[in-house]
Amino acid sequence: MSKQPVASLSLDLDNQWSYMKTHGDEGWESYPTYLPLLVPRVIEALRDANLRITFFIVGQDAALEKNHAALRMITDAGHEVGNHSFRHEPWLHLYSEAELDREIEDAEVAIETATGKRPNCFRGPGFSLSRTVLKVLTKRGYVCDASTFPTFLGPLARMYYFMTSKLDKAELEQRDQLFGKMQDGLRPLKPYRIQTEVGSLIEIPVTTMPVLKIPIHVSYLLYLSVFAPWLAKLYFRFALAMCKLTGVQLSLLLHPLDFMGCDDNIPEMAFFPAMNLTVSRKLKFLRYVFRTLNQQFTIVPMQEHAKAIAEQAKAVPMKHPKAIALP
């Protein structure tokens, strides 16, 4: 393997309906999908950059025949699949153990049926996580979880989301931990092994800026590029330099709307930051991001990243869920 530091790149494959559901928009129950448009575009961009990544797939999408051809393209192109829950409800901390076991199993079955591969990594929708989630994942033999988002800005992101939504009081209370809490900024940035009562698994946090704990994933970079593309690039390069300086193993996050723009004519997604940019402008910026990553890191899917971390067993700290303030 290259002497460059190992890093992972993943995409949360949230679909049109899942954004609408979380946002409180009408019409999500018909499961509108942009996956047949989106997935080939993402696969082409990754192929051009010679990158293999992890796609965290929602089980409900994998259960629908209309999405099967697009989802099969992911594994046919050599990419990895992860579990992003079945119903994409960012309040998994309210589920019982039995409900979580069914939720994760249903997603596993649907994803394997659609893609031919069983997921072994998990990311909770809206970074939803609990001790019970980790226990269920460990019992089911998962290699890693990637649901922690160490930033102090989660409540601000939630406030923006709520301000643009049509959610009623009960729905707002249900989503009161969407994008995390202020104290999540105290969580570790470096990967670690997390101990549950039935075993352990590797936790790979979504990387934020070392020390400052402000987001660096591509949606934030694109939003910054709306105002000053040069500043977004400088911010990204500084973040990568800080990761290397502090020894943080980078795990960078992508979203579907990083690859979609105003010319795709999906008005339901207009609330999302940077959706006033065209597809060509976003893809140009993504090419810059991918080129920069390839110059400085060896990019691998999440399971390979977790394996590389596990091989450094003595250097990987063991933590209990209480230590990272999980409900």
TrEMBL record:
GO terms for molecular function: hydrolase activity, acting on carbon-nitrogen (but not peptide) bonds. It comes from the Bacteria. InterPro entries: Glyco_hydro/deAcase_b/a-brl, NODB_dom, Polysacc_deacetylase_ArnD. This is Polysaccharide deacetylase family protein. GO terms for biological process: carbohydrate metabolic process. Gene3D superfamilies: Glycoside hydrolase/deacetylase. PROSITE patterns: NODB. Residues 18-152 form the NodB homology domain. Signal peptide: none annotated.
